[in-house]
Write a structure and sequence with these properties.
Helices cover 28% and strands 34% of the residues. The chain has a 7-stranded mixed beta sheet with strand order 1-2-3-4-5-7-6, sandwiched between helices.
Amino acid sequence: MISVTIRKARLDDAKGIAEVSKQGLKQKTWIYTGSNKYTSKRYKQLLDRLSPKNSTFKMFIAIDKKTKKVVGQLSYSFRKTGRQKHIVGFGWGVYPGFEGQGIGTKLLKYALEQAKKKGFKRAEAEVVVKNIGSIRMAEKCGFKLEGTKRKALLTDDGKYLDVYVFGKLL
């Protein structure tokens, strides 16, 4: 079992975070992201999101204590104003070959604690119906299945995928 440190991501973590996504897409373990490739545009978006100026996006990473590599990532986003400012939306991914070791669960539990401390009242996640690992992880962390969105995700190769909507009160 791998030993990891969980912490908030910084701008200088961007290359490690991008590598997690690139490998997941390359090895086809991240087939439910809606994107089949990691582009320079996507990397720039990551840098923008990690910028201290971005106040509506937070990212947390899992770092292998032995190799010091990023082996998992989780992000959440929210609105600063309006009727849904109490809701935080989650997304996550684990480096290929490190799945099933509790890394994603540790990330999600940590991020849920942080979101609750920030005053959020509800957490949400959308998971592709075929993504059994993420479904189990969400349920393990107390999320409840609230519904299905049919043809909610369009992949780069033109396929439409159904997604489950999960929710959790904080």
